[in-house]
Structure formats: C-alpha cells, structure tokens
TrEMBL record:
<comment type="similarity">
    <text>Belongs to the binding-protein-dependent transport system permease family.</text>
</comment>
<keyword id="KW-0472">Membrane</keyword>
<feature type="domain" description="ABC transmembrane type-1">
    <location>
        <begin position="72"/>
        <end position="264"/>
    </location>
</feature>
<feature type="transmembrane region" description="Helical">
    <location>
        <begin position="184"/>
        <end position="209"/>
    </location>
</feature>
<dbReference type="Pfam" id="PF00528">
    <property type="entry name" value="BPD_transp_1"/>
</dbReference>
<keyword id="KW-0812">Transmembrane</keyword>
<dbReference type="InterPro" id="IPR050901">
    <property type="entry name" value="BP-dep_ABC_trans_perm"/>
</dbReference>
<keyword id="KW-1003">Cell membrane</keyword>
<feature type="transmembrane region" description="Helical">
    <location>
        <begin position="12"/>
        <end position="33"/>
    </location>
</feature>
<feature type="transmembrane region" description="Helical">
    <location>
        <begin position="243"/>
        <end position="264"/>
    </location>
</feature>
<dbReference type="InterPro" id="IPR000515">
    <property type="entry name" value="MetI-like"/>
</dbReference>
<feature type="transmembrane region" description="Helical">
    <location>
        <begin position="110"/>
        <end position="131"/>
    </location>
</feature>
<keyword id="KW-0813">Transport</keyword>
<protein>
    <submittedName>
        <fullName>Diacetylchitobiose uptake system permease protein DasC</fullName>
    </submittedName>
</protein>
<feature type="transmembrane region" description="Helical">
    <location>
        <begin position="76"/>
        <end position="98"/>
    </location>
</feature>
<dbReference type="InterPro" id="IPR035906">
    <property type="entry name" value="MetI-like_sf"/>
</dbReference>
<feature type="transmembrane region" description="Helical">
    <location>
        <begin position="143"/>
        <end position="163"/>
    </location>
</feature>
Amino acid sequence: MLLLNNWRARTGFMTLLLVIGGFLFLPIVWMLLTSIKPEGEVFVRIPTILPHVPTLENYRALFSHSETAMQLRNSLITAGGGALLTVMLSTYAAYSFAKFRYVGRKPLMFLMLSAQMFPFAMLLVSVYPMLQWADLLNTRVGLIVAYIILALPSGTYMLYSYFINIPNEIIEAARVDGASEVYILHRIVLPLAIPAMVTVGLYSFMWAWNDLLFSLTLVSSPELRTVGPGLLLSYLGEGRANWGGAMAESIVISLPVVLGFAFLQRYFIKGLTAGAVKS
C-alpha cells in the first residue's frame, strides 16, 4: 500500500511539473515555430503547430537589415551602462545604510525604497520633465539616467540585505589594523559581495533590455532606438503585422539575456538567497 501511494505521489508530482513546464515553455516554443513559418502559414484560420514548409527567410531578412545591429548596439550601451552605474551607486548607498549610523539614515532608506510603490508610468511623468530640463531627452545618457532611477531602489535593498549579514567583526578588525573606510569597502567587503553585485547588475540589465515604455517615450530618433521600440515599430502596425519577422527578432534579442543568465546563474542564485538567513 505504501509503494502504491508513493507511485501515485510521484506520478502526480511529475504530472504537475509537466503542466507547469508546458505553461512556461509553450509560448517560447510557439514563438520559435512561428519564426520559421512562411507568411502564408501564419495567417490561416486554423493555425498548425509545426510548419509544413519551414523557412529561415525571417532570419535572413532580419540580419540583412542594418537597423537590427544598430538597435542591439544601442540596447547594449544603455542597458549595460545603466546596470554598471546602478551597481556602483547602490553598492555605496547600501553599505552606508548597513554599516554606518547617522541621523536620517532610516528615513532616507525608506524614502528611496518608497519609489518602488509607484507604477513606472507615474515615475515617467516625473522623469520626463527632469530630463527635458537637463536637455537629455532623445539621448542615450538620458535613457541611462532613467534606468538608474528605476533600478536603484531595488538594487540598494538587495545589497543592503547582503551587507547587513557581513559580520561587523571583520570590519572592526580592519579598522584596528589602521585600514581606511575606502580600503575596507573595496578590498575586504566588495570581494565578499560579488554574488549580490552580480545579481543587482543582471537584474538591472534585464529590466533595461526588456524596457519598452521609457525607451519609446524618451527616445524618438530612429538611430537611437533600442530593441524594444525597434521591434514594435518595425514589425507591428495598424494595417499589417509581420509576426514571423517579429518572432525571429524576439528570439535573437533574447539571446544576450539568456546567455548572461546562463553564465552568471550561480552568482545570481547565491546573491538572491544570501540575505534570506541571518548569519
């Protein structure tokens, strides 16, 4: 009876995993299959799962356009620059909140975190006139600043959760030995915080890479467009939509994030779980 119950439990568990896996991966599989379908098989009354005549024409057309490489370059510059600056600024802010005691420390931290309470569209209403006043609209620098504003609160909190668990005895011992605060942060604390910093950087990069709202609003020049607006404006319109080309470009522009996460996965998981248990 016990073996029968174990068999039923394993079967039920595997069935549940298959259902969840199908729910998660079916859109990706459908996107991949659509990208290799000719246009005549995409716009049919009853679509088929597998293409009758597979084709790579959508990928050939994608790589023959210079706009795709330009948009990828713009996204790498803005998302990468925003991620690097977010890691730098959130590191100093989080270390200050975690290891120093001064007047207004907690209110300042709560004020920074309160920015996460508002929808991104509401933050855009505040960011737009600020960038307009600084003459940073329709520039890569302005878009990088917007990405920093949006990712800094959550990045600071993640690093704060990591720094708060670093034993103060390590820092006090370094101070007794005559080390300066700058030396302690850069030579002692930061090597211990690499998983958390990678987590913040990867999180910021993924958010900026997948952004559409801010990049579509703050940048209007075609030569400065990132992959999100480029995908929307190139393949989707009121009169006609090239779904095969859109799916092909979606797969290509997803590769940097997928590869980055694959290489940095162990740091990402370690950084997310480091602040979960008080040491």
